[in-house]
């Protein structure tokens, strides 16, 4: 089988950052953009915990879909299986710089979140106790301070 595009990124030198992963044109000409929201250095820093990433997923998805200026363009937010980051899929042709303010707001929301995680109930989620809010807040805060302040946005060659 053909190696898919996301496996051709050189993970040996990939830094934490915000990357344009894919740009897909639909048949009607509309563009769907997939961003790589990379929170840890692959294979060099510890991956995020599954529980942290799950809490980040619930909080980010909730925040993004409640942002009036972006909600209608958000298609998907979800964790990478390798637990080093997330994918954000948006409707429209965008670059990392276009979404940096939105990402900073999203991670600031997570870093400061108090209370019950939205959707963290047996009715609303498939594994609702598999959450770690304290770790999610710490991971979000670190990404905000160490990466989103001045993120790398170009994949290594
Ligand atoms: Zn869930």
Automatic annotation (TrEMBL):
Superkingdom of the organism of origin: Bacteria
Enzyme class per UniProt: lyase
E.C. number(s) listed in UniProt: 4.4.1.21
Entry keyword set: Lyase
Protein's UniProt name: S-ribosylhomocysteine lyase
């Amino acid at each position: 089988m053909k190696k898919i595009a996301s496996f051709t990124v050189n993970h040996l030198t990939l830094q934490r950052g915000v990357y344009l992963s894919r740009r897909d044109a639909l048949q009607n000409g509309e563009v769907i953009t997939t961003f790589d929201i990379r929170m840890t250095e692959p294979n060099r820093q510890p991956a995020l915990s599954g529980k942290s990433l799950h809490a980040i997923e619930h909080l980010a998805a909730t925040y993004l879909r409640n942002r009036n200026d972006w909600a209608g363009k958000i298609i998907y937010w979800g964790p990478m299986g390798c637990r080093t980051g997330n994918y954000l899929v948006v409707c429209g042709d965008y670059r990392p710089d276009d979404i940096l303010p939105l990402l900073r707001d999203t991670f600031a929301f997570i870093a400061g979140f108090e209370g019950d995680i939205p959707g963290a109930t047996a009715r609303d989620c498939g594994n609702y106790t598999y959450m770690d809010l304290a770790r999610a807040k710490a991971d979000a805060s670190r990404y905000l301070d160490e990466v989103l302040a001045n993120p790398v946005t170009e994949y290594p060659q």
